[in-house]
Fold this protein.
Amino acid sequence: MYEVVSLFDIERWLPFLLAKSHQMTFNLMKNAVEPYGLTPPQFATLSFLWKCDGINQQQLGCLMSVDRTTIGGIVERLEKLEYVMRGNDPEDRRSWVVNVTAKGKSLKEEVLKDLDNVTEAIDSKLTEEEQVQLTAILKKLRGRKNNQNCEEVIK
């Protein structure tokens, strides 16, 4: 018999590890937000709007790191759920401003409580120092220009 020597180890390959970590956390998030009729991307969009209500779709897409078509579809589905509403942007007639409705605002506390379990499931595998390090590394990998926050994007 011949011994197979492999220099490539899939279980040590960073893209594979990130993909599997994403898959696990996405499923945890999905299970937490599904009872509210949301998907994880819809929840993330709503979360940015809770933080920066009244921004336009282009700014929202920038915060989410998604293209115009994708953010338009997400906002449209959130609008059908009556969690957000769109209106004309007074600064740019070609653009829509997105606002969280009363129904969308009332959802915040309840859904965030359910997402505490997701955070606990992840945090339980890491020390506090590892949690801080992982957060910093993931923000760096996300690569948003200068780690801009809502306030910087909407200027």
